[in-house]
Amino acid sequence: MNGGCHKARPKRCHLLWALAAIVGILVLAPQGLAAEAAEAPFINIQMDGQGDPGRTSVVMQIFLLMTVLSLAPAILIMLTSFTRIAIVLSVLRQAIGTQSMPPNQIIIGLALFLTFFIMTPVWQNVNQNAVQPYLDKKISQSEAFERAIRPVRTFMFKQTREKDLAMMIEVAKRPRPSNMEEVDTSVLIPSFIISELKTAFQMAFMLYVPFLIIDMVVASVLLSMGMMMLPPVMVSLPFKLMLFVLADGWHLIVGSLVKGFA
Question: What is the C-alpha separation between 169 and 184, in angstroms, rounded?
Answer without folding.
Answer: 9
